[in-house]
Amino acid sequence: MPLIIISGYPSSGKTYRSQQLVDFLKSKIGSSPDARINRVSVHHVNGLAPGYDREVYREAKTEKDARAEEYSAVERLLGRDALVIADGLNYIKGFRYQLHCEAKAARTPSCVEAEIAELKGLEVHVGTPVEKCRETNNRVLAEDGNSGGYKQDIFENLVFRYEEPNGMARWDNPLFTVAFEDEAPPFEAIWKAMIGSEGKINTVQPNMATVTAPATEPDYLYELDKITQSILNNVREWQKDHPGEGGGEIAMAEDTISLPTNPVTFPQLQRVRRQFISLNRQHKLPKERIQSSFIEYLNDNFR
Predict the structure, then answer these.
(1) Would you call 74 exposed, middle or buried from its count of C-beta atoms within 10 A (0-12, 13-18, 19+)?
(2) pLDDT at position 90 over 50
(3) Number of C-beta neighbours around residue 294 at 10 A
(4) Which residues share a beta bridge with 85?
(5) Which of 193, 185, 152, 189 is nearest to 13 (CA)?
(6) What residues form DSSP beta bridges with 3?
(7) Cα torsion for 225, 226, 227, 232, to the nearest 10°?
(8) How many other C-beta atoms are found inside a 10 Å radius of the C-beta of residue 287?
(9) Residue 95 CB: number of other CB atoms within 10 A?
(10) Using 50, 70 and 90 to split pLDDT, how confident is the model at 214?
């Protein structure tokens, strides 16, 4: 069954929105005439497992441990008759990609719900959400004696590092944005995307990028490193021949790299490459698929 990923700034009301979803989904499932849907159970996974507090975000190691706990909880619960809501910051797009792969490997749809603190008409005011969240966090800190909110330095650091979901990226799609003034998330749209309509439950077929192979060839990591580095070298050569230009296309066999309008630096390319290698160490790709998969990952990050 589906995975719903909640993402947003600290103190943006993620848990409140998650509870609204839990209440709606339980009511919808209980009133469904479809026996298959009646079997579905709803699970709410908190981004901070018992024993962890918001101080984990102060150090990279403790934050990594907390993310691993959330990932393990989601992994354990995902199944045919389980609907999982991952309620946490989930601010790193690489982590959302991992959750997307896990949901796809389990043949369940996934969606991302992003908390945006203010939306007027069709325009998103990026600066306003942070102020709303900061105001809420400061109020909670004052009321709860520093136990219910984020310390000021941690809050500012998390806001700075937040990677906003992008509906153009397949791991953030479908994307539902909930404005601060909205009384509730778009329940029916989420239900249709996750469960399906007319009594038909949506399923997702896993592909080679999300199926974990039982064993890895001895030279798999070597090939993964060599092929991805070769692709970056091609990008560098193109940039040397077209200094200061952006928006070009680089043809590589049957694949095409579509560069962004603004020139991308080599450190940025290396960071994307490291993320791809980290995500695919355990997901064995056929050698002939490494190039096309990495180029697809590059293009998604360039959008």
Answers:
(1) buried
(2) yes
(3) 24
(4) 4, 44
(5) 185
(6) 84, 110
(7) 90
(8) 13
(9) 22
(10) very low
Token pair belonging to 188: 């029916």
Q: Which amino acid would we find at residue 193? A: A
Structure token pair of residue 227: 């092929």
- Pairing label, strands 110-115, 175-178: parallel
Q: How far apart are CA 301 and CA 272, in angstroms?
A: 8
Which pTM does this prediction carry?
0.62
Of 111, 47, 37, 46, the closest CA to residue 80 belongs to: 37
Distance CA 186, CA 182 (A): 9
User: What percent of the chain has pLDDT above 90?
Assistant: 23
Nearest to 69 by CA among 43, 41, 94, 88: 88
Q: Which long-range contacts (CB under 8 A, 24 or more apart) does 135-139 make?
A: 136/11, 136/12, 136/13, 137/10, 137/11
Residue 72: its pLDDT value, please? 93
Q: Is the dihedral of CA 279, 87, 116, 122 positive or negative?
A: positive
Q: Say which residue the tokens 């947003």 belong to.
A: 8
Parallel/antiparallel/unpaired status of strands 255-258 and 249-252: antiparallel
What distance in Å separates the CA atoms of residue 86 and residue 43, rounded to the nearest whole number?
Answer: 9
